[in-house]
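SEQUENCE-TO-STRUCTURE ENTRY
===========================

Subject: a protein chain together with a token-level encoding of how that chain folds.

Sequence line: the amino acid chain in single-letter code, read from start to end.

Question of interest: how does this chain fold, as expressed in backbone structure tokens?
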Amino acid sequence: MEPIKSLLVLSFLTMVTLSMCHPTATNGRFYRNDDAIMDYDGYQLIRIKPMNMEQITILKQLENEYEMDYWNPIVNNEHDQQPIMTIIDPQRLEFLSQLNQSNIEYDILSNNYKQIIDQERFGNVYSKIVTIKLLW
């Protein structure tokens, strides 16, 4: 059951990311709504699991220090806190060192977020092509 949940979470996060972009992409580069080009090659997708209020406070500080974009909110109650999803710019991998130094548990779900985006985008195109060929 856990692999299915992970796949659903990754699919959802990919859809969220793509919804922030224009519908066209080339070579893993997406245009955000502010027309900035985003290339997610080498970005890591991680799930952070804060266990107590001290770790939650540290995550808030790191969010500001590293200008992180957490995909779900940090709450002020350790019992209600869900794992936090985010992507990490390859230029900011010291963020992971900070998590390690603070004993904050995390999982690396993907070492290259661009591959997830490409797989979602081009995988759908491939399945449509195969379906069309089968119909002929």
Helices lie at 2-19, 53-65, 94-101, 113-135. The two ends are 37 Å apart (CA to CA).
